[in-house]
Specification:
By secondary structure, the chain is of the alpha/beta class. The chain is 32% helix and 16% strand. It has 12 helices and 13 strands. A 5-stranded parallel beta sheet has the order 7-6-5-8-9. A 4-stranded parallel beta sheet has the order 2-1-3-4, sandwiched between helices. The protein has a 4-stranded antiparallel beta sheet with strand order 10-11-12-13, with no helix packed on it. Strand 5, helix 6 and strand 6 form a beta-alpha-beta unit. It is globular. The relative contact order is 0.15. It binds N-carbamoyl-L-aspartate. The site of N-carbamoyl-L-aspartate has 12 residues, from helix 2 and helix 6.
């Protein structure tokens, strides 16, 4: 069975096919109004959400299917201490597809191990968010017409910003992409990515948005992720590190596109919204159609089986990352991946030392 836990679970050809179908659905939504008639999507949200949950639900309704779920952990049996595995096994009896968002890294992967139906990762802690990446890729296609050769600036919280991590992983598949990471040093792109996917991608790092701005074709702004900070004083110190204003945008390229997964807090001034380069609300619309394409594709069962990564069980190794699902829930399968010199936790990708 195919799940979508990490964007690399889809081959490049499969991603492109999903984007083609998403575009087709955007143009002719009426043609797909019955595609999922009689099928059910469950949305299990243990963390707040507006766009991801509602776009999943709207997508399923647009295909003629039904939805059920919860939008906070406190209204589910998680509040009584139920594990992700047991919740998924249960909901798998009620639904044909499960979208799950959880504050712990690797929670969706763990869910997939126990699920009788396909699982979609709608965000696992500060780790990954692959359906946002499909949204971003469709928006890039619509706005810029291509991904190859783009210079992409990522600005804000690159440490905890899961949408950044997944999009970087996706961009690695395209030729000629250059990355510019703009963040305070404390919130720079995680070491596990520098020791992983970024080994084969050209990138620079800076803490100055004005210095970085003349370069990119695409500027991907992100919110400082308050809920992930162990130290709220540090959050207060860093929260207004970057604020994109019309004045700052002046030296940027005329065709540059500004994306943001939203919600925005303070990092883009509302005065930027009227700039034609501000594409973040158009991006929201893409999210609905690319999720329609994903749901239809998974329900149709047309994706060919793919071998799982070469995970190995190391019963004596315990992942040291406190944000990993294995740190808070018992998990008999302690899975790791041997990646060159390093061993990574299968759930959260943290390097095991
Ligand atoms: C993002 C998320 O939840 O990771 N939003 C989204 O899904 N569109 C970004 C964020 O919360 O800052």
């Amino acid at each position: 069975m195919r799940h979508l836990i990490d964007i690399t679970d889809l081959s490049l050809t499969e991603r492109e096919a999903l984007l083609d179908l998403g575009e087709e659905m955007l143009r002719h939504p009426g043609d797909f109004a019955d595609a999922a008639r009689g099928r059910i999507l469950a949305t299990l949200f243990f963390e707040p959400s507006t766009r991801t949950r509602l776009s999943f639900e709207s997508a399923m309704l647009g295909l003629g299917g039904g939805t059920l779920g919860f939008s906070e952990a406190s209204s589910s049996s998680a509040a009584k201490g139920e594990s992700v595995a047991d919740t998924i096994r249960t909901v798998g009896c009620y639904a044909d597809l499960i979208a799950i968002r959880h504050p712990k890294e690797g929670a969706s992967l763990k869910g997939a191990f126990y699920s009788p139906v396909p699982v979609l990762n709608a965000g696992d802690g500060g780790h990954c968010h692959p359906t946002q990446t499909l949204t971003d890729l469709l928006t890039i296609r619509q706005e810029l017409g291509r991904v190859e050769g783009l210079t992409v600036g990522f600005c804000g919280d690159l440490k905890y910003g899961r949408t950044v991590h997944s999009l970087v992983n996706a961009l690695a598949a395209y030729r000629g992409v250059k990355l510019v990471f703009i963040s305070p040093r404390e919130l720079s792109i995680p070491g596990y990515m520098k020791e992983g996917v970024l080994r084969q991608m050209p990138y620079t790092e800076t803490d100055s948005l004005p210095d970085a701005l003349p370069g990119p074709d695409l500027l991907y702004m992100t919110r400082i992720q308050r809920e992930r900070f162990a130290d709220q004083e540090e959050y207060q110190r860093l929260k207004d590190s970057f604020i994109l204003t019309p004045q700052l945008l002046r030296p940027a390229r005329e065709h540059m596109v500004v994306l943001h997964p939203l919600p925005r807090v303070n990092e883009i001034s509302v005065a930027v919204d009227d700039d034609p380069r501000a594409a973040y609300f158009r991006q929201v619309k893409c999210g609905r159609f690319v999720r329609m394409a994903l749901i239809q594709t998974l329900l149709s069962g047309t994706l060919a089986p793919r071998p799982a990564p070469d995970w190995r069980e190391y019963p004596d190794c315990i992942c040291q990352n406190p944000a990993c699902i294995t740190a808070v829930e018992q998990e008999p399968r302690r899975l790791f991946l041997e990646d060159g010199e390093v061993r990574r936790c299968a759930y959260c990708e943290a390097v095991y030392r």
